[in-house]
Amino acid sequence: MNNFKTTVLFQMVALLLTLNIACQDQADKFHQGLVGAHFGDPDLTGIKDFALLETLDQKWGEADGFSMEWSAKWEGFVIAPVSDKVVFHVATNKQTILKVGDIEIDVKGDAGEGILPLDMKKGERYPIELSYLHEIDGQGFFSVQWSWNEKGKLPIPPEYLFHTQKQADNWNWLIDPDPKTIDRRQFAGVSARHVIVGDEPGYFYGWPANHGVWQWGDEILVGLMKAHYKMDRLHHSRDKSKPSYILLARSLDGGETWSIEDPDNFAGDGGKPMPVKDKIQFGHPDFAMRCWENEFFISYNRGKTWQGPFLFPGFGLNQLTSRTDYLVTGEESCLFFLSSKVENVKAGLQDRAFCAGTSDGGKTIRFVSWMAETDTLRSVMPSTVRPAENHLVSALRRRYDPTPSQGYVLQKNWIDVYQSLDNGASWQFLSKVADTDGGKRNGNPPSMVRLNDGRLCVTYGYRGIPYCIRARISDDNGKTWGRETILRDDARTFDIGYTRSVVRSDGKVVTIYYFTSEQNVEQHIAATIWDPTGINP
Length: 537
What we know:
This protein folds into two domains: 29-174, Toxin - Anthrax Protective Antigen, domain 1 (Alpha-Beta Complex); 186-534, Neuraminidase, CATH 2.120.10.10. The protein starts with a helix and ends in a 7-residue tail after the last strand. The strands form eight sheets. Strands 1, 2, 3, 5, 7, 8, 10 and 13 form an eight-stranded antiparallel β-sheet that branches. Strands 4, 6, 9, 11 and 12 form a five-stranded antiparallel β-sheet that branches. Strands 14-35-34-33-32 form a five-stranded mixed β-sheet, with no helix packed on it. The chain has two helices and 38 strands. By secondary structure, the protein is mostly beta strands. Strand 19 and strand 20 (259-261) form a beta hairpin.
């Protein structure tokens, strides 16, 4: 039979099958294609997005945003084309696992074509599962064809692939809502101006919260990362195969204009860690300190030049995962708000925040207290203010991941606030500020500032729909919070946020973050200048 006749036969059989399916009970309604999900990791973990597979001949690459490590899984039914032994042929350059009925094959790219033979009865439905594991960056593909009765391999027509409504319900909870359906009346608004802090064609600028912000009046200094841009749908759009750089951005006019700096002997320059020899002058008027994991750098000229890196002690803990958050308490004394990897934390990133301190210019730094009462929920990237003597309030990034036994369930990402009434010696939970995504994107850290009128303000990126930069304000030192205020909501994807905020001399807030929009696709650093007294309730 020639290809034309074969195609006509497939179409006729598909029509009859469709009519037959349409007559079945609605509870068993079938839809075309296989249904499943994309995962952020190459082992079917880190569930991200709903995925409909319409054909079994797929290719992915950088242009599609699928060139980094990831995986996917689909399920449904395949209709038998004939009553005969049907052979499924699997080709891939990565890893593809195919299961039809009770037979499964695992095909790796270096092993050649995989063969799955199955005795089938024409017109009957057979359960099918297909998993694709993309473990190494680069182009990827798989192709599943079939053959029977000594005929050559043929593509499996889309009309022969179906899934049930029940299977759809197992996965369609992953579908993001249409931004147009979000009731914006739940949010407050505020008049704001957006300015560019750092931007360069072909590059990804990101994560101010990872690198710190410092302020001297209306002079603002913020850290950032510059990496090569590489579009990715499931991860950060940076090319990990190329070098990245830690830079600074400085404003001398309260965030209105900015310049990029690359100081010597700063983070990423490969300096060898050393112990503190001379006492650190924490009270110096032009002091700045940048913390990262188990190291820190100091500057006495507003970040123009740096000393370090210096080593934090181990504190008898596991690996430190710290960022920059500290409060100067005297000429030679300082509180550090750090974090360490803790194995009991039920999250893919196992951090727990703690407070440390020094009273001898950094010669000795001691562990003071854990900041969160439990070691099972992730707590990291604290942002701390002092409302009064001995009274500290800190916002913490939180996360909880369901166990594998719970199935495909989204993680939880949010911000909590804790307080200390004894200058960091002990901490108590105060309140939850907000969720920071819909459970797919690792959430976002907080940035807390004390406004000129004494209120507390937390800013953060929201990595769910609608992708945006938000703020909440507390009138009672963090016990309760006003409505979420949207600072801007024109983000193109989830890959945004990591705010650092400061308060200008005129009371306006400068919120710095990384962002992507339809007008400026590549991630860049932006700042929103807004008046917290002008929020529209």
